[in-house]
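Build the 3D complex.
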Amino acid sequence: MRLRLLIYGLLLVCCVPFVFPIWWMATTSLKPVSEIFAFPPSLLPASPTLDAYRQVFALQPFGRQYVNSLYIALVVTIGTLAVSSLAGYAFARVRFRGSGAVFLIVLTGLLVPNEVTIIPLYKMFDAFGLVDTHWPLILIPMLGAPSVLATFIMRQFFITLPSELEEAGRVDGLGRFGLFWRVCLPLARPAIGAVAIFTFLHSWNLYLEPIVFLSSKQKFTIPQALTQYVDAYGGPMWNTQLAAATLSALPVLIIFILAQRQFVEGLAQTGLKG
Amino acid sequence: MTLLLEKPARSDSPAARAPYWTMRRRDTLAGWLMVAPQLAGIVTFVLVPLGLVVWYSVHEWNVLAGTFEFVGGDNYQALANDQQLGPVLRATGLFSVGLVVLNLSLALFLAVLLNQKLRGTVVFRTLFFSPVVVTLVAWTIVWGFLLQDNGGVNAFLHVFGINGPNWLRSGGAAMVSVIVVQLFKNVGLNMVLFLAALQGVPAELYEAARIDGASAWARFRRVTVPLISPTILLTMILTIVGSLQVFAQIAVLTQGGPGTSTTVLVYYLYQQAFQFHHFGYGATLSLVLFLIVLVLTVVQWQMRKRWVFHEN
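Done.
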């Protein structure tokens, strides 16, 4: 009983740095400027106002930027799933000439973080006239280094499927693509879920790539837009920044709270455990 | 490839007239088609740029004049003479070591707490994990707000009679701040991986250790740690490589300051290339980053043999 109380106490204390910033972000965004630096700070706004939220949309095309982030993340997620599930399946279940060599080449993607290649990537997209478009933010994560981890996770999953499944499919006259699409892919839901979550969050959080590749506000993504709410002296407009930050976090946070089982267990069950 | 040659002819292929599209040929075609997008992507967006980084590192690029000249080892010379490089590597090392040590200890601690058979652990797990799904820059901005001189953290410390420093404006404290911000953002991910590993440790082993009179701490050290060591290694690799890539937090919180105290390698190479337009020198710094990642990964892979107790 004592031990139990101690553990609950420890858990509660540990929660503070995880939960408090999120609470602070949401509540401060509802405070009028005069209240932000009030001392002692108040946990709830005394006179809540939506002014900061109005500012968010008045100062920047925030709706547009939101749509940019959303559609880029969705395209990247679907594209990565297509690329990585096909490649992962081939590496796990198809015996073909050159498979080992190709796998080694693909694995080098795990060794080369995007930050290492950002300069030549910038020059390449510049040469094709694709700077200040969304193409780099879509193509690089979907086909480049970040998708390798996805391929690896899919491969680890497909390896675990029993071979009898595919033999049964063969008897029914399915070819390789049929086996992949009809038999194996439907079984891969946990791995697909984990890869989808990883990929979506990765794209949603991208910061270096957008600030390198994008220059017009209409094309900005959310993380990049968040830091643009500054006053005439370059100082941050805190309540506006925090309102925009809250808006950026809210949808993902809500989905997470509704589907936290799939989130947490999906990530834990992807061959990533030892 | 030799493996394919040694394989006996398939018994189900008709012996009389072997068709061209044997199962093996069909599989080879299907296999190549399936890996083609990934392979093309890796060649285009990883291998070619990696080659170009090497190429650029022996050139100098003047964006304004539009010239691109071969300069041989000049950039490497500059690297050797760069007064900033020492502090930058030091900051990078401090950040990585601090983050990895704190992250793995806290993740393991929380996972052990949550692995107790108690009600409500799912709620706590959700709370610890929730920063993972908050937009990285949003999380950084709110911490930036809390860490100001007159911000929430110092107000909290004031309750206990402590006068906190101006966290983001004084050297040591700024480094601590960026580590802590990153720590709480992502520790939930490692916690979940540890939790999955802990749940895979058979209860009989603890039972046996208990009968042998092992204390809780001894059970943890002698049973838990060895059995989850593959997960410890994996999370360590992921966390170290991730820590070397830190950028947004630095750019938003400190811009590498004060001085160069939080200028990590990625931020420095971003500054050199995209703010000062020293693309050739930036490419040289990219190679340094690549070599560090490469060496660390190889070392960790080697450590696996000595260190990881069991692997399946």
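Chain A touches chain B through 101 residues (CB under 8 Å).
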